[in-house]
């Protein structure tokens, strides 16, 4: 009886208003360019870890969720069939900054950003694949602070992109930089899918919401230079660099992106079975 009441409440809220989680990173900007809240949909903005938890707690109805959280909670979540944040090769914004070469990171302390779940797991998969065991320290994403106490630091999103472009010296030393998207491609020759749009299985997104998201993506990709211009100003980077960065992403969850997602799942989750992942039939 309680389950039925919860479902009825979910349907009632759906009719009244949906809550859409918006990741506040440049790489997703083309997906919601010119998309504004409307009478039956409000926006909730945050970093991936915040929105991942908000979705699982039922505080939002649909969001770009980190792929590792989609995999871990595959019993509760269902994804849109044609949306992704993926790259084939370098991603430019999921970067490990390190003092020693990659192959010498065994036994070293690695600071992990607290903003991401997928990138952290991807790093662990890549290190295991090369026989490296390290100590991990969760930290707020501040490269200078991270590298003061650790031998390497994982950054994601806009901060990673800015630091990679700036190539700052820290304490008169130049850290080495490894792009985890490129490392994944070297290992698998597949795209890496960082995120998918997902909702709880008992709370499907409305047709209107999905239609608006698809339309916003078309507008965003059709005006990529304009999207890049807006975010270049925020990031303090050139429009050309930001446009090239955005053009590198794969936003449609095509078959190679799914293959990359399944391969990541097999490497990160020992008991994973491909048939356990569900996608909305829209």
Structural commentary:
- The protein is of the alpha/beta class.
- The protein folds into 2 domains: 2-86 and 191-276, 3-Layer(aba) Sandwich (D-Maltodextrin-Binding Protein, domain 2); 94-188, Periplasmic binding protein-like II (D-Maltodextrin-Binding Protein, domain 2).
- The chain is built from 11 helices and 12 strands.
- The strands form 2 sheets. Strands 1, 2, 3, 4, 5, 11 and 12 form a 7-stranded mixed β-sheet that branches.
- Helix 4 (118-129) links the parallel strand 7 (109-113) and strand 8 (135-139).
- The radius of gyration is 19 Å and the shape is globular.
- The chain starts with a helix and ends in a 14-residue tail after the last helix.
- The model is unreliable at 1-8 (pLDDT under 50).
What does this entry show, briefly?
By secondary structure, the protein is of the alpha/beta class. Helices cover 42% and strands 21% of the residues. The chain has eleven helices and twelve strands.
């Amino acid at each position: 009886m309680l389950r039925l009441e919860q479902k009825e409440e979910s349907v009632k809220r759906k009719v009244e208003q949906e809550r859409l989680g918006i990741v506040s990173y440049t790489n997703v900007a083309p997906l919601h360019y010119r998309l504004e809240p409307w009478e039956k949909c409000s926006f909730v903005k945050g970093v991936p870890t915040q929105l991942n938890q908000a979705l699982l707690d039922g505080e939002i109805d649909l969001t770009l969720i980190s792929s590792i959280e989609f995999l871990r909670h595959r019993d509760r979540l269902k994804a849109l069939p044609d949306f992704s944040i993926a790259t084939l090769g370098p991603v430019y914004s999921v970067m490990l900054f390190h003092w020693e070469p990659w192959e010498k990171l065994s036994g070293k302390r690695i600071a992990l950003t607290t903003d991401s779940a997928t990138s952290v797991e991807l790093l662990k998969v890549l290190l295991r694949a090369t026989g490296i065991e390290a100590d991990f320290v969760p930290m707020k994403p501040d490269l200078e602070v991270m590298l003061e106490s650790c031998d390497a630091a994982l950054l994601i999103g806009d901060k990673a992109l800015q630091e990679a472009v700036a190539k700052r010296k820290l304490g008169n030393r130049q850290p080495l930089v490894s792009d985890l998207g490129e490392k994944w491609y070297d290992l698998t020759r597949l795209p890496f899918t960082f995120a998918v749009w997902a909702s709880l299985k008992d709370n499907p997104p409305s047709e209107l919401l999905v239609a608006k998201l698809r339309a916003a993506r078309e507008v965003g990709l059709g005006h990529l230079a304009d999207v890049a211009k807006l975010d270049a100003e925020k990031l303090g980077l050139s429009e050309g660099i930001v446009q090239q960065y955005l053009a590198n992403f794969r936003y449609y969850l095509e078959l190679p992106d799914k293959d990359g997602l399944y391969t990541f799942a097999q490497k990160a989750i020992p008991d994973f079975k491909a048939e356990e992942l569900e996608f909305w039939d829209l």
